[in-house]
Amino acid sequence: MKKYLLSPPHMSGKEQRYINEAFESNWIAPSGPHLTRFERELAEYHDVEDCVATSSGTSAIHLALRLLDVKQGDTVFCSSFTFIASINPAIYLGATPVFIDSEPLTWGMCPDSLELALKEAKHQNRLPKAIIVVHLYGQSAQIEALLEIATAYGVPIVEDAAESLGAEYNGKKLGTFGEFGIFSFNGNKIITTSGGGALIGKSAVAIEHARFLSSQAKEDKPYYHHKEVGYNYRLSNVLAGIGIAQFAVLDKRIRKKRAIFNLYQHNFQKEEGITFMPEQSFSFGNRWLTTCTTNKSIQDKHLYQLVKQGIEVRRLWKPLHTQPVFKDCSFYKLEKKAVSESLYEHGLCLPSGTMLTITDIDWISGQLRKELLN
Ligand SMILES: *Cc1c(COP(=O)(O)O)cnc(C)c1O
Description:
- The protein is of the alpha/beta class.
- It has 12 helices and 15 strands.
- The strands form 3 sheets. The chain has an 8-stranded mixed beta sheet, sandwiched between helices. A 4-stranded antiparallel beta sheet has the order 10-12-15-13.
- Helix 4 (88-92) links the parallel strand 2 (75-79) and strand 3.
- The mean pLDDT is 97.
- Residues 56-58, 82-83, 85-86, 134, 160, 162-163, 184, 186, 197 line the site of pyridoxal-5'-phosphate (PLP).
């Protein structure tokens, strides 16, 4: 049986060549020419001075929060509607998360809820050390509005663009608005190094410091000398080789992802029961995953049925404020019913691999219609 996965890796064919080069030159380490080149290409693409490639998107967030001096007893604000990796590094640093609801236009952090939370935090003299804004499913949050509010309170933003490499807000690449921006090259993301990530930021000095922290904070001396605690978070030169080949086809992958989204949307244009993730005029999404919401709440039995047919569908992110592990954390919302909770009850991610054909998408659409809309 053919399996239609959400977003499987899609090699360009040139990856092996770079891997071989790394082997031939014996740069089998978290340093080397591929790594330097991959970082430079990522920096140029985002029109920033520097970039550090990391072992994962999660480690990039961890480094960003460390650079913002997040520590025991601090709070960090974060979108509730996201993958747990967005906030885990704050926990590693001993901070307490506060979750913020989404708004329906972008599914990203709601600016009004953020303002409410900041106002209250200021009143209690407990402003957060950082705000993690997530750009979901390849689409920009209302980053300018969020930035304006955060700036008014003097709190830096970390953009979690793990899912949104190459996407834009008013023609500017995501990840370049906040103090820091992070990306992920995990196997399921739009391009992959099998596992990896990257960190960019407004300050080249800060990124250089992140690079230092990512290699155990080892001082440049002929003996082992450490003035602070670092991490082993640098990307391998072998994997950076995969990254170079993948990055070269990023724009092609974005075009295909967008075409897949449009095909699904076209297939359901006459159906009232299903709506696709909106794209606002300020946003150019990479459409990492095609996502939709249905009128009726989705039941697990329908999802099991689809998976049995080889169609990997998954609900949208389960809001973090509803996760048992965060049951004691605060959550700010405007609506009586949280937007993130309705998205979770009604929303679905569809198979969006860039190797899908039109025939595949038509067949999947037919099965979805049978299972979800009858
Ligand atoms: C994938 C993902 C991450 C984590 O990236 P890894 O490279 O898997 O560590 C963080 N945030 C979001 C929103 C993600 O989708």
